[in-house]
Amino acid sequence: ALEITSSIIFYEQLLGFTKRFEFDDYAGLARDAIEIHLWLCEDSHIPKNTSCRINVKNIEGLYAEYQRVDVIHPNS
Question: Which pLDDT score, from 0 to 100, does residue 2 have?
């Protein structure tokens, strides 16, 4: 699915994750000890009302890395 492919590219190229697996509408990516699973969802209510929390050490380094690739939301 195009949406999954676009998300995989974003996570790999901008956020430094590595794809572990990919199926039609489901994929898993990892970076260090973090593993994220992505799935295509037809119900827009679910992704609009879903979040996750990841505890990070050396947040300054990660913030600087993501700032360089311009993925920090303006409200961050």
Answer: 65
